[in-house]
């Protein structure tokens, strides 16, 4: 297929349905609603680092002083309840975009999300018992009674008392399902709440009070019928799952949808597809980061949250279920220094370019590239629809995704720790935050990989630009000479 024919095929056959999907009400609500969780993810990551400080001496001091438990509390109440921010934000944005007061919808969505869950947790005593039990620890994390000793002492109690002590604790919210493991259920509830809430208001399902009633009060009565319908439906759903399946919708969705999708996104194929897709969409002038980030983030954020929980528990290994591909894998490797990992192109323009165009754009792009922004290159160089730089633009993120996946898989560097460094964090520093000094070194290596891949292609493109500039100068000089004569 010729270049022009291929471009026409992509622009007419692939892009329209993709853009139509991206601009649907549901995807817009998902995209903008998830943003509300960003402050809690980043702030919570700071507390996660403090509660598990990477320097052992400092970590021990914080744990012995009790400060680690305070930092843990802050992490749990921010990053640890990620699904709460998502379920509120998604419904809020959906209804706001429909032109109605949105906060009641967000709160209704939260109530529905909590309602569909079993409000119980396994008794902590159960996990401490037996040879494989954790035992009982003090506030400093020191085991003061082994799992075997706990079991032996429990066995001495009357059977009725043993049963009571090991029964689930009821009447509580299970933090597990308010974090990353509840994300898909939160998205489903948020979208369905936003859709049904706004739909009922469009049909006039609301209580209208006299004009004399204050607006703040009247608005709450407007929300009463939609909220009542949604919560009643949620209660019936909870009852069905509890009575017939002895589980709840959140756990059912996790096993049926989230675990398989997380596995797919966490695979080598998933990493390569994500790496290629970002550059592919950008090449045709469509915001690849926005499209891929919105879709992939649904499954990568739970991976991040799962790794954060393992890191906090001191069990961050692949053997314990840690994920390789997380949201930070996407932000801080696949998109490092901007889509296409264009730092190699920046280095070429600064030190080896001859054309004025590349040298000038290199100076403009240097500072944005440090903070992972490369729009000056995407549209100024350009990289969009540029056949001379298409190969390194597509190839670099794929090579980095492949190599990063493999070095984590084979244990050369540890899995990413779940810390959510902002996507604008400079390279190497972000590597240290999300994975320690080994990851920082590897992130530097990826910059070298980018330079090695881009250099020969950039050199050829620069030679073409330089020739055009020289030809233009020669032509202008000839014209001036003709005028002078």
TrEMBL record:
Keyword Iron-sulfur: no
Molecular function via GO: protein-N(PI)-phosphohistidine-sugar phosphotransferase activity
Membrane-spanning segments: 35-55, 75-95, 102-121, 175-200, 221-241, 261-283, 290-313, 333-353, 388-412, 432-457
Membrane topology: Multi-pass membrane protein
Keyword annotations from UniProtKB, A to Z: Cell membrane, Membrane, Sugar transport, Transmembrane, Transmembrane helix, Transport
Limits of the PTS EIIC type-3 domain: 10-457
Coiled coil: none
Xref: InterPro entries: PTS_EIIC, PTS_EIIC_3, PTS_IIC_cello, PTS_Sugar-EIIC/EIIB
A single cellular component GO annotation: plasma membrane
Localization: Cell membrane
GO terms classed as biological process: carbohydrate derivative transport; phosphoenolpyruvate-dependent sugar phosphotransferase system
The UniProt record lists the keyword GTP-binding: no
PANTHER family (alphabetical): PTHR33989, PTS SYSTEM N,N'-DIACETYLCHITOBIOSE-SPECIFIC EIIC COMPONENT
Cited function: The phosphoenolpyruvate-dependent sugar phosphotransferase system (PTS), a major carbohydrate active -transport system, catalyzes the phosphorylation of incoming sugar substrates concomitant with their translocation across the cell membrane.
Protein name: Permease IIC component
Organism (species): Liquorilactobacillus nagelii
């Amino acid at each position: 297929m010729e270049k022009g024919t291929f471009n026409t095929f992509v622009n007419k056959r692939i892009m329209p349905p993709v853009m139509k999907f991206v601009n649907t009400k549901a995807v817009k609500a998902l995209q903008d609603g998830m943003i509300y969780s960003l402050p809690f993810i980043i702030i919570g990551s700071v507390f996660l680092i403090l509660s598990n400080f990477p320097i052992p001496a400092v970590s021990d001091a914080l744990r012995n002083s009790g400060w680690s438990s305070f930092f843990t509390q802050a992490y749990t109440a921010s990053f640890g309840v990620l699904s709460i921010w998502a379920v509120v934000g998604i419904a809020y944005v959906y209804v706001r975009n429909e032109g109605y007061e949105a906060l009641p919808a967000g709160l209704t969505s939260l109530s529905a999300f909590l309602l569909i869950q079993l409000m119980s947790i396994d008794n902590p005593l159960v996990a401490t018992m037996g040879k494989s039990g954790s035992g009982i620890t003090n506030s400093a994390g020191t085991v003061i009674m082994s799992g075997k000793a706990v079991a032996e002492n429990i066995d001495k109690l009357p059977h009725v008392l043993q049963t009571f002590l090991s029964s689930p604790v009821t009447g509580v919210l299970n933090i597990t399902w308010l974090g990353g493991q509840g994300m898909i259920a939160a998205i489903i509830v948020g979208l369905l709440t936003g859709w049904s809430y706004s739909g009922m208001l469009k049909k006039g399902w609301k209580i209208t009070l006299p004009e004399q009633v204050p607006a703040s009060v009247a608005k709450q009565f407007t929300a009463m019928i939609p909220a009542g319908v949604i919560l009643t439906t949620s209660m019936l759903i909870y009852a069905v799952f509890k009575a017939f399946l002895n589980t709840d919708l959140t756990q059912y969705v996790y096993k049926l949808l989230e675990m398989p999708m997380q596995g797919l996104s966490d695979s080598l194929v998933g990493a390569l597809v994500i790496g290629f897709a970002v550059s592919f969409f950008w090449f045709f002038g469509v915001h690849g980061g926005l499209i891929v980030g919105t879709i992939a983030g649904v499954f990568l954020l739970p991976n991040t949250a799962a790794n954060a929980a393992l890191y906090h528990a001191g069990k961050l290994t692949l053997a314990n279920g840690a994920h390789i591909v997380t949201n930070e894998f996407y932000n801080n490797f696949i998109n490092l220094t901007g889509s296409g990992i264009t730092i190699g192109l920046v280095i070429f323009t600064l030190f080896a370019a001859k054309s004025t165009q590349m040298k000038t754009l290199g100076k403009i792009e240097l500072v944005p590239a440090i903070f992972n922004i490369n729009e000056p290159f995407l549209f100024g160089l350009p990289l969009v629809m540029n056949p001379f730089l298409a190969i390194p633009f597509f190839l670099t993120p794929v090579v980095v995704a492949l190599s990063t996946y493999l070095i984590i898989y084979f244990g050369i560097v540890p899995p990413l720790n779940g810390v959510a460094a902002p996507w604008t964090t400079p390279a190497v520093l972000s590597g240290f935050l999300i994975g320690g000094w080994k990851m920082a070194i590897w992130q530097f290596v990826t910059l070298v990989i980018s330079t090695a891949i881009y250099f020969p292609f950039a050199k050829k493109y620069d030679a073409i630009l330089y020739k055009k500039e020289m030809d233009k100068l020669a032509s202008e000089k000839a014209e001036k000479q003709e005028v002078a004569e």
